[in-house]
């Protein structure tokens, strides 16, 4: 299965999730998944439901097991027995502009202040932020190069003058501390040869939110959600936002139309138009 995934260029995180799903299935069976029957697959999914496994986890397991059955074992009959779980899609948590400002100001230290501003100012995923190298900042073209983002795709993200100046300040501070290596990580971890971990950045966001008195449940991805929502409220074309976020499907980006409160408030209700028409008719009479 590892060879099959490597041949198809699956991302390391995807491979890890798939293997975990197969391991859980094997532990449930108590024997090799190669010996599984359709009834075994059914019992496993019933076991997941009875154990309170959340729908996203169930669906991740379906993806991993489908790969095993379809590709590695050539058992499509077992793959067809797997059922995806439907679940309600919740609206993302979004901070207003004032809340974002408070959170960014509350970040501790120049490295985290810069990293969180990249997450919000360029709309990057947490894995993309920690994966940046110093050479990815293109001050000539005012772009941030994101290499091998989600779906193993490269793209360019926006780089504002204010963000560039902040990153230059962090570069000078990092050089002074001796942690910024030539062509090294933009946000190095405790060891300069390793990047900041996503867990460390998540912890920094939680601490900043607590310091700023923000009661909403926030994460680095909240800054990405807020970036997209605020652009939409500024009347930026949704197709442009799609490109900036690196979304493959416009439907994914369209989710932000449901949380862009300023955009929603700007729409005139047909009830208001009806009232104006009725008043006009009364005046004419």
Automatic annotation (TrEMBL):
GO molecular-function terms, A-Z: DNA binding
Protein's UniProt name? Integrase
Q: Which GO terms describe its biological process?
A: DNA integration; DNA recombination
Q: Which residues form the Tyr recombinase domain?
A: 90-269
Q: Which UniProt keywords apply?
A: DNA integration, DNA recombination, DNA-binding
Q: Work out whether the entry's keyword set contains DNA-binding.
A: yes
Q: Which PROSITE patterns match?
A: CB, TYR_RECOMBINASE
* Ranges for domain Core-binding (CB): 1-73
PANTHER family assigned to the protein according to its UniProt record, in alphabetical order:
PHAGE INTEGRASE-RELATED (PTHR30349), PROPHAGE INTEGRASE INTD-RELATED (PTHR30349:SF64)
Question: Would the keyword DNA-binding turn up in this protein's UniProt record?
Answer: yes
Q: Which residues form a coiled coil?
A: none
**Domain of life, per the record?**
Bacteria
In the record, the note on similarity to other proteins reads: Belongs to the 'phage' integrase family.
């Amino acid at each position: 299965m590892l060879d099959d995934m490597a041949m198809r260029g699956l991302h390391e995180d995807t491979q890890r999730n798939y293997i975990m799903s197969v391991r859980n299935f094997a532990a449930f069976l108590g024997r090799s998944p190669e010996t599984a029957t359709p009834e075994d697959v059914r019992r496993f999914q019933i076991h997941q439901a009875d154990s309170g496994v959340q729908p996203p986890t169930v669906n991740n397991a379906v993806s991993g097991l489908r790969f095993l059955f379809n590709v590695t074992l050539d058992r499509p009959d077992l793959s067809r027995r797997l059922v995806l779980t439907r679940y309600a899609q919740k609206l993302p948590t979004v901070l207003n502009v004032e809340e974002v400002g408070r959170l960014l100001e509350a970040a501790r230290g120049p490295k985290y202040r810069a990293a969180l501003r990249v997450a919000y100012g360029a709309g990057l995923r947490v894995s993309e932020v920690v994966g940046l190298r110093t050479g990815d900042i293109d001050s000539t073209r005012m772009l941030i190069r994101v290499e091998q983002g989600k779906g193993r795709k490269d793209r360019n993200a926006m780089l504002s003058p204010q963000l560039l100046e902040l990153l230059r300040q962090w570069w000078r501070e990092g050089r002074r501390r001796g942690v910024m290596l030539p062509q090294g990580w933009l946000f190095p971890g405790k060891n300069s040869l390793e990047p900041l971990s996503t867990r460390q950045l998540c912890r920094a966001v939680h601490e900043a939110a607590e310091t700023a008195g923000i009661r909403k449940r926030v994460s680095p991805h909240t800054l990405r959600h807020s970036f997209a929502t605020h652009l939409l409220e500024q009347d930026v074309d949704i197709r442009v936002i799609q490109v900036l976020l690196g979304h493959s499907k416009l439907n994914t980006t369209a989710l932000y139309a449901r949380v862009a409160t300023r955009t929603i408030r700007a729409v005139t209700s047909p009830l208001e138009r009806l009232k104006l028409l009725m008043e006009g008719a009364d005046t004419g009479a």
